[in-house]
Amino acid sequence: MDRPTLKQLTYLVAVDEHRHFGKAAEACFVSQPALSAQIRELEKRLGNTLFERGNRQVLPTAVGARVIERARGVLRDMDELVSAARVDPTELRGPLLLGVIPTMAPYVLPGLLPVLTAAHRRVQLHLHELKTAEILRLLRDGGLDLGLLALPVTGDDLVQVPLAEDPFVLALPEGHPLAGAGPVPVSSITELPVILLEEGHCLREQALSVCRLVGTHEAEMQATGMTTLCQMVATGLGVTLLPTSAVALEARPGTGLTTRPFTHPAPSRTIGLVWRRTTPNEDHYRALAGLLADHLAHRAPAAAASGGGTGGTPGRNRKGAAAADAASA
Fold it and tell me: Residue 223, class by beta-carbon neighbours within 10 Å (0-12 exposed, 13-18 middle, 19+ buried)?
């Protein structure tokens, strides 16, 4: 059997990613004629056309799409073969590609990164702020090593380890009738316009599930990010469900925003760490997940002992404060 070479598979995936032979050649540090010749040779070996070549765009054929998917898997397995030969039994070392969702990165990472780098001083951390779907795609394709996101995710090919619960609070504009109250039931949002993030954010789906549970309606407007969402609420356009981890930053004094914890049982999201089941660094990742979870858990008692409110949230109970500091650590 005349098998494709790893070089040909690499060029194949590059053309699919860039949908342009010239840009793919630049990414692979080869000339376009050389890359094109290898793709033609690959098509000859497989006996099928893999790309539709147009004047402005290159598209994979139906067969090409299937071959590209398999090629990504082959390249990922080869990378993991090399990694397995280089695994240090004592610590992680070298590049570590970590994907984090935008609704978690600014609030959770500042406390977790020192824990990671202290445990693995020789690691070269590369952070990528991406939405959940893109993180999962890159994890499966080998473009990321770890994902920090909200659980659960689907797929037996991924390992997911919960780190902490991140309860939602009700975010309101200052002066709102509910702003001076204590904990409120989830049903209190039934008649309120709830502003959510735009499509693609997992936080939107989590908040929507709460809205459906109590029969409330989503406001017509949507926000592109968490800060914009909170600014819209502060101006009186509606209310929103805010992860406790974001309260210290987004609802700090002067923002025009105040928050109320929900009565038990409060809706929440689960902060978790995800990686490929086939990774040779399984033991290191599990140990790292344990360290991160312990860090979040040990932050909670200290926060509870301090009492008081945070971020313009007078009268917040101790349980709410502990959860906030634990999740935002």
Answer: buried
On the CB side of 153, how many CA atoms lie within 13 Å of its CA? 28
CATH 1.10.10.10, the chain: domain bounds:
6-86
Q: CB of 108 within 8 A of CB of 245?
A: yes
pTM for the model: 0.70
Specify whether the CB–CB gap between 148 and 104 falls below 8 A. Answer: yes
Are the C-beta atoms of residues 65 and 95 closer than 8 Å to each other? no
Spatial separation of the C-alpha atoms in residues 38 and 12, rounded to whole Å: 9
Nearest alpha-carbon partner for 311 in 249, 261, 239, 241: 249
Helix (H, G, I), strand (E, B) or coil at 30: coil
Q: What CATH number belongs to 6-86? A: 1.10.10.10
Per-residue pLDDT of the chain (329 residues; tens, 9 = 90+): 688 999 999 999 999 999 999 999 999 999 999 999 999 999 999 999 999 988 778 999 999 999 999 999 888 888 877 766 566 677 787 889 999 999 999 999 999 999 999 988 888 999 999 999 999 999 998 899 999 999 999 999 999 999 999 999 999 999 899 987 789 999 999 989 999 998 888 888 888 888 887 888 777 788 889 999 999 999 999 999 999 999 999 999 999 999 999 999 899 999 999 999 988 899 999 999 999 999 988 765 443 333 333 333 333 333 333 333 333 33
Contact 310, 227 (CB under 8 A): no
Within 10 angstroms of residue 186's Cβ, the number of other Cβ atoms is: 19
> What is 93-164+269-310's CATH topology?
D-Maltodextrin-Binding Protein; domain 2 (3.40.190)
Q: How far is CA 201 from each of CA 5, 20, 177, rounded to the nearest angstrom?
A: 38, 29, 29
CB within 8 Å of 209: residues ≥ 6 apart: none
